[in-house]
Amino acid sequence: MKLKQLALRSGRWEAAVAPDFGANLTKLAYDGFPILRSPEREEELLSKSRYVYGNPLLLPPNRTKDGSFCFEGRSYSLPVNEPERSNHLHGLFTDAPFRVVKHTASELICSYRNRGERFPFCFTIAFYYTISESGLLVKIDIRNDGAEPMPLAMGFHTTFTEPDRFSVPLGKRWERDKRYLPTGRLMELNGKEKQITQGCRPDGAPLTGYFTAAGHRVVIGDYQMETSGQFDQWVLFNGGGGQGYLCVEPQIGAVNGLNLPDGCRRLESGRIEQCWLRFSKNL
């Protein structure tokens, strides 16, 4: 089935958002060049490969051990949707139906109110997309609608078309166990990872890892993505290499952060957390 997308355009920039699929930024192009890997049909966003198209919302991001965590002395559970490793993976927001509040040629506002069905807390998340001749700005507001504090762990599975050259400001690498969960130990970067911080070419080899952020600006060929300061982690993934895409995933909180000391932010009742992503030319 053809994917319903809302178009945005300004000058040489063109974007599209699928409100019925988590308000995913399913298209971003400059002069017709695809910066993000785009889906063409709904089936692609319903498949197991849904995370490697566009910029899907992850809440919570990546893996949560056994699909369970404790917060403020209470236990919570999420479905174990990675049964081979007994983890919860990537949250449940990729097919959340966002309500369109406003749509013009250059602006889109859409929101979703979660009453506990996709994450066991009450909150509203809103996306503000604004495109201009300088690029695309994505503002994200999360308001805690509950009577008690909530944990905030969020990210995006940002999937770029594979560039000729890229750089990511990696800090340190999280050691991982066989379940792809952080052990809690932070490691120094290896030779390849140091090259990534300075800028290098994809070599077709598998690329995967969890890292602290040493900066908030990623260079992808002739383009760049910048993030607000809350995004304190980077995750890298390329599907084993040779797939034509590169995921550079900004995260607020570490992988399995709901189960790590100081692994996620705390959002008080009635408060709003505001963060953003910006895509532009690398000048």
TrEMBL record:
It comes from the Bacteria. One of its GO terms (molecular function) is carbohydrate binding. Gene3D superfamilies: 2.70.98.10. SUPFAM superfamilies: Galactose mutarotase-like. One of its GO terms (biological process) is carbohydrate metabolic process. Coiled coil: none annotated. This is Aldose 1-epimerase. The lineage of its organism: Bacteria, Bacillati, Bacillota, Clostridia, Eubacteriales.
